[in-house]
């Protein structure tokens, strides 16, 4: 008999609680097996894009190689949807004569239903199921208000979260399991791509697969850039962020590994010491908060606004303007540069995510759900909780939402985050010859100079758009 470890969004061997516990169970000499289930139609329903699927499959391949060195075979199953997953898993488990299934919790409503179906089927067939928390440092249900409710606001959530982490210090990481004595052959091919997805438009070299690459990025960030994170994180032309979000989304690195590395660089401090480090830790807490919200308020998994009253907003349905936004042709350089970065790299700087999402929802008054879906379809780090949280913040429909009257002026934001236009020139080369001040708003140039530039006029006037949005929000007060 041997335990079976079901890998999902946790594609690593280090600090992997389910794998560690499975190997502990098998320390009497039993083999350990692992499995990953490819569900392309389900991924498509969840708005995964080709760039994310490509990254996921490359990391599954890297995981298989790493597990093989531990003499643990990674079996790969392929079914269409979550509904077909339980039966496929049970068939494999029975073939391998497994006595227990180990996996980590996932928090989306479809994932919860799938996992419950798997658990019931396995227990009905006398196979034990062991579930661990992994995606968060503190399990979502454990961070509650004094009256036992889920937090709706980030700041008090963060205070409670910090208190709970301090009670658990020092945080211990699960070590990588020891090499097993024997291994049965792995079954199932890992395809380079699956239907209905096409080839990824983003070069794989931009995002190498594997937990070795994830740890390399973490170490480089902590060693060279984390202390200046608070100063450089809003400047997209600088290499000031960790670029770990794709690896966290796929579970190639754990949030615990990130927090432990940050605290070690900060002399063991969690919320004091280096301002850059504490600012980055705060970003990890935001990631935890959005998963907390996903569990506490599952309606957001169903395309619903966190604040129900905002469902009455009269969003505009303008396909032409949405297309201009999605293709980086709005006539606002910082917005267009950001959208082109997304298309070219599968990733967007966080400050630019805020600018572009607020431009779509406030300047164009287009439903945030259209933007949320577009981002998920193009982001290599597409993550339901964080993506939804960010979009609802910008649209003023979510937790800790920007007040509806807080509407970014994209030109002012451009001057703040890209003062010399370096980022804009990288992705909007048709504006490369403009001066540092001119590049943020080409529409203000004299007509003769303006006509010589192959760049669109702004599709909306920001001042007029702001008035329209305020009127729409005031109508539902």
Concise synopsis of the structure shown:
The protein has 477 residues and is of the alpha/beta class. The protein has helices spanning 17-25, 40-45, 50-69, 85-95, 109-124, 154-168, 211-224, 229-232, 245-249, 255-265, 275-296, 319-326, 333-345, 350-363, 368-378, 384-395, 410-417, 422-427, 447-451, 462-474; strands at 2-7, 33-38, 74-78, 98-104, 128-132.
Index terms:
477 residues; alpha/beta; Rossmann fold; Serine Threonine Protein Phosphatase 5, Tetratricopeptide repeat; DNA Cyclobutane Dipyrimidine Photolyase, subunit A, domain 3; 3 domains; 47% helix; globular
Spell the H/E element sequence: EHEHHEHEHEHHHHHHHHHHHHHHH
The fold-level CATH name of the largest domain is: DNA Cyclobutane Dipyrimidine Photolyase, subunit A, domain 3
The second-level CATH architecture of the largest domain is Orthogonal Bundle
Mean pLDDT, to the nearest integer, reads: 96
Strand order of the largest sheet: 3-2-1-4-5
Shape: globular
What's the CATH H-level superfamily name of the largest domain? DNA Cyclobutane Dipyrimidine Photolyase, subunit A, domain 3
Query: Helix segment count?
Result: 20
Distance between the ends: 62 Å
Q: Give the helix level as a range of percent.
A: 40-55%
Which class do the helix and strand fractions yield? alpha/beta
In the residues, how many domains can be counted? 3
The proportion of residues in beta strands is 5-15%
Radius of gyration, Cα only, in angstroms? 24 Å
Total number of beta strands: 5
**Uncertain stretches of 5 or more adjacent residues:** none
């Amino acid at each position: 008999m041997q335990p079976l470890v079901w890998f999902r969004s946790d594609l690593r061997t280090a600090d992997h609680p389910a794998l560690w516990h499975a190997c502990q169970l098998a320390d009497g000499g039993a083999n350990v097996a692992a499995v990953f289930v490819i569900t392309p139609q389900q991924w498509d329903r969840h708005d995964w894009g080709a760039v994310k699927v490509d990254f996921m499959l490359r990391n599954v391949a890297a995981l298989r190689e790493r597990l093989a060195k531990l003499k643990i075979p990674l079996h790969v199953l392929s079914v269409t949807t979550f509904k077909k997953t339980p039966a496929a898993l049970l068939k494999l488990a029975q073939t391998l004569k497994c006595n227990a299934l180990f996996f980590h919790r996932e928090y989306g409503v479809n994932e919860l239903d799938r996992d419950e179906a798997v658990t019931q089927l396995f227990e009905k067939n006398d196979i034990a199921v062991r579930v661990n928390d992994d995606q968060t440092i503190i399990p979502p249900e454990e961070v509650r208000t004094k009256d036992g409710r889920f937090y709706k606001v980030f700041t008090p959530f963060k205070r409670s979260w910090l208190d709970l982490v301090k009670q658990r210090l020092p945080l211990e990481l699960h070590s990588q399991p020891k090499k097993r004595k024997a291994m049965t052959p792995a079954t199932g091919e890992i395809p380079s791509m699956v239907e209905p997805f096409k080839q990824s438009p983003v070069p794989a070299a931009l995002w190498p697969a594997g937990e070795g690459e994830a740890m390399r990025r973490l170490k480089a960030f902590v060693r060279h850039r984390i202390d200046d994170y608070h100063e450089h994180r809003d400047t997209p032309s600088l290499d000031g962020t960790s670029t770990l979000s794709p690896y966290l989304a796929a579970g190639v690195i754990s949030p615990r590994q990130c927090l432990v590395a940050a605290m070690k660089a900060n002399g063991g401090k969690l919320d004091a010491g280096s301002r850059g480090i504490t600012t980055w830790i705060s970003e990890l807490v935001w990631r935890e908060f959005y998963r907390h919200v996903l569990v506490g308020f599952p309606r957001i998994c169903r395309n619903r606004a966190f604040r129900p009253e905002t469902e009455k907003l009269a969003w505009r349905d303008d396909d032409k303007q949405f297309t201009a936004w999605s293709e980086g042709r709005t006539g606002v350089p910082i917005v267009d540069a950001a959208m082109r970065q997304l298309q070219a790299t599968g990733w967007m700087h966080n400050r630019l995510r805020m600018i572009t999402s607020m431009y779509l929802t406030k300047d164009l008054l287009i439903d945030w759900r259209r933007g949320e879906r577009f981002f998920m379809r193009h982001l290599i780090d597409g993550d339901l909780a964080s993506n939804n949280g960010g979009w609802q913040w910008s649209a003023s429909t979510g937790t800790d939402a920007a007040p509806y009257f807080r509407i970014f002026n994209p030109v002012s934001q451009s001057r703040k985050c890209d003062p010399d236009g370096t980022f804009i020139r990288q992705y909007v080369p048709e504006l490369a010859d403009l001066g540092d001040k001119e590049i943020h708003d080409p529409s203000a140039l004299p007509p003769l100079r303006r006509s010589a530039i192959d760049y669109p006029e702004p599709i909306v006037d920001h001042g007029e758009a702001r008035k329209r949005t305020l009127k729409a929000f005031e109508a539902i007060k």
